[in-house]
What does this fold into?
Amino acid sequence: MPPDVTPQIIVVIRFSYVALAGFRLSKRGEHDARSLLYAPERLERRFRLFEALTLPSLLAQTDQDFTTAVLIGTDFPRPWRKRLEALLQPLGDGRIIALPPLKNYKSTKKTLDLCTTRSATHVVSMRLDDDDAISRDCIEETRRIIPPLLQVSGVETPAIIAFNNGLFLELGSGGNTLYGVQEKTPLGIGMSMVAPRGARPTVFSMDHRMVHTRWNCFTEGVTPRFIRTVHRDNDSTGFMSGTRVDLPDDDLDAILAQGFPFSRHMLMTIGG
It folds into this structure.
């Protein structure tokens, strides 16, 4: 690590947060968005994916020195909030941040500011949706990349770390499909921005597919480091910018065994 640099990694998960802008759903208006996001059937599906994929991938991290901030609305239904609070307890530094409806950047920036410690010289804002997973070593690899990235980019210049190799898991009533992807534009799962504490830019400052047009961006594309789910509740389409790689079951098993706390059988039986 460069001298006098102390990074704090903060994973921000927006959990059915009623945002005023930043999502396709926001265009429906606050009332309609809230009704859809808080529908019990939809919340049950989101919790099912969070419990099966997102949370286990965080609990399995080889580097546990990170903060998990789950952003929800101040009016998030109480029974569901209690369920979420219980789920976060095993995390070393997992916390819920409840905010009123705000635009996406403002809400996530406030979330990051509320979680930032005074000892941190740099904030590493990491994106993760509540229905996706990162590899066991994603935090560890992010921390390993930070020193050479800052050496090249400069300690005062915000820079991006992204992972473009991973798996897509399509959930369907007729069965699930699991396959590899090699993205050609930055993908948001596990993507981070390294920036000096107090800097305005965060990883949520612009569309994740376009961050490389504004900031220096290191993209690691060799090791599979994410699992993205594609299902009926996605706010964005299951858009893949690169190449689909249909892998034999043995290869999928090897990828999962090496990098993730899941079996292929478990992933293929998750309901959407």
